[in-house]
Amino acid sequence: MMKRADMKRISPALILLVCGALACGTGSHVQPVNPDLKVYRPAVPPLDSRHSSSKLDRVAPGTWARYHVASDGNEATVTLGAVRVEGKSLWVEVVEEGDPRKASLRRITFAGEVASARYQEIPASGAPSEVADQPVSPGVDPGSLRGPPARVKEEKRMIKVGDRTIEAKVYRKVYRDEAVGREYEEEEAWSTEVPPLQENLEIAGETAGLIYRKTPSGAVDLVDWGTGYAALVP
To answer: Which of 210, 206, 197 is nearest to 166 (CA)?
Structure first.
C-alpha cells in the first residue's frame, strides 16, 4: 500500500494524464459527424400565389417540360413536372437546376391558384436540406400593368425544339410605353403539342403550351418535354 508521504510526491500532471486516459469525471466527448448525415434548413424564397397556367386539368400526371429562362442578365434552367391530381388541383414540382438544385412542390388548382407549397434544396453531394413549408403571397399580373398591345401580327411556323420539329403559332406584339413615348416588341410561339405546364393559350378551341417568349428584358425558351416525371420533394 502507498504511504501518505509517497502520495504527496505524485505529480499533479501525472494525475491529470491518468485521469484523462481513464475518462475520469463526467466531461462530454465530441465525436466527428459524417457530413452526409448533416441536415440544414434552407432559406425559403416566397412564392407568388398565382401560377402562370390556368389549364392544368389538361396536364396528365408524369408530364414534364423544361425551360431556359433569362431575365435581366440572370439565367436558369427550370423543370416543371406534374406529380399527381388531388381533388380539383394538380401537384406540380418546379426545379431550378444548379448546386444545390432548388425544388418547390406546389399544389395548384386547375385554374392556377397556388394552395400550398413545400421547398427543399438538394446538393450534388451530401444530404438534402429539410423540407420546409414555402410561404405563398398574392402577386400582381404583369400584363395587367401595361394593357393590351397596340398591334399584333400572327403567323404559322415550323420550329425545332430539341430533336423535334413542331408546328407553332407565332405572335409579334407591339406595345407602346406612354410614359417614355416609345414602342417595344415581344414575340411568342405556342403549340398544341406542348403541355400547358408553364403557360397556356387557347388557339381555335385547343389549349397550347408556350414554346418561347422574347422580350426586351429577357427570354423563355422550351428545351424539351416528355413523360415519366418523378418528384424530388417527398
So the answer is: 210
Dist CA 198 CA 216 (whole Å): 20
Which CATH architecture is the domain 47-138+149-225 placed in? Answer: Clam (2.50)
Q: Tens digit of pLDDT for each residue in 131-174?
A: 999 999 987 665 556 788 999 999 999 999 999 999 999 999 99
- Give kind and range of the element (H or E) at residue 48: strand 47-48
User: 232 is written with which cell numbers?
Assistant: 424530388
Using omega within 30 degrees of 0 as the cis cutoff, is the peptide bond preceding 195 cis?
A: no
Secondary structure E strands in 72-163: 74-86, 89-96, 101-109, 114-122, 132-133, 136-137, 151-161
**Domain spans in the chain, listed from the N-terminal domain onward:** 47-138+149-225
How does DSSP classify residue 21?
H
Q: What is the pTM (predicted TM-score) of this model?
A: 0.80
Query: Furthest-apart CA pair in the chain: how many Å?
Result: 108
Element (H, E) at 15: helix 12-21
Q: How confident is the model at residue 79 (pLDDT cuts 50, 70, 90)?
A: very high
List Cβ neighbours of 221 (8 Å cut-off, separation of 6 or more). Answer: 67, 68, 211, 212
